[in-house]
Amino acid sequence: MYVRNGFERQHRWATALRSTVRHPTRVRLGRMLVVGGVVGLLLTGIVSVGLVALPARGAAITVGDANSFALSAVDGLRFSPDIINDVPVGVNVTAIFTNADTSGSGHTFTVSSQLNHTIPSTTDLGTYFQQYPPLISLWENGTGLTTNGTIEFSGVGWFEFVCLEPGHFQSGMYGYIAFGEAVPANLSVSAPATGPGLAVFIIVGTIVTLTVIAVVLGFVIGRRRGSEFEMPPQRLGYAEPPDAGPGGSTPPPSSPPKG
Ligand SMILES: [Cu+2]
Hints:
- The chain is of the alpha/beta class.
- Among the domains are: 57-193, Cupredoxins -  blue copper proteins (Immunoglobulin-like, Sandwich), CATH 2.60.40; 195-233.
- Helix content is 35%, strand content 20%.
- The protein has helices spanning 2-9, 11-19, 23-53, 125-131, 195-230; strands spanning 60-62, 68-74, 78-80, 83-87, 93-99, 107-111, 136-140, 146-151, 157-162, 174-179.
- A six-stranded mixed beta sheet has the order 1-4-10-9-6-7, with no helix packed on it. The protein has a four-stranded mixed beta sheet with strand order 3-2-5-8, with no helix packed on it.
- The radius of gyration is 36 Å and the shape is elongated.
- Bound molecules: copper (II) ion (CU).
- The site of copper (II) ion (CU) has 7 residues, from loops.
- Copper (II) ion binds next to loops.
């Protein structure tokens, strides 16, 4: 009775300790594992979808001896590829332009005629192309549709190409095409404002979330294991072991009685 009363004074603490070894907590732990697993799978899916949805950046092709090349306008206001190397010089080359943008937006493939020149992003393209008529300008308004045209340049060098739809160039819809050489390495198409930023956000968010889940699970599991080893047996409802007498002179129970 005395011992029992003593534990009743610690009612809340004792209850908390006891609850850690009961089945409901194992069920709760199982639920946490399931929820954590589901959350992890969902986040993995989100990351996968996010990465797939992002257009390939810096994709390059080399035309070489071919007499045609293909490129697409893709989701996110990008060209793919956006680097076209080594187009043959002095011959008609067919450009095959596909509108693969699932948003339904129209796009153009419009190549500047100003040799080895990068168009500043603040340029008004209407005015610019009046001054420098494009080498080629293909427009395709329908998703999944393709249009063709030819381009020819009798020299070695590179040109920038853009999309003329309002705001698309400013959003990063441009690329470079080089005749008789590769596009210079210092020319690259800048990352879209929402593309890699969004991917980084998703990846970092996933890492943080999974780390939090791991820490929480580690804490729960560690607490549960700790409770198995550290909890005093009487708090688990077991009988207390017999006290050793003063001086510890109690004989071990295996000792045969002397007679
Ligand atoms: Cu466009």
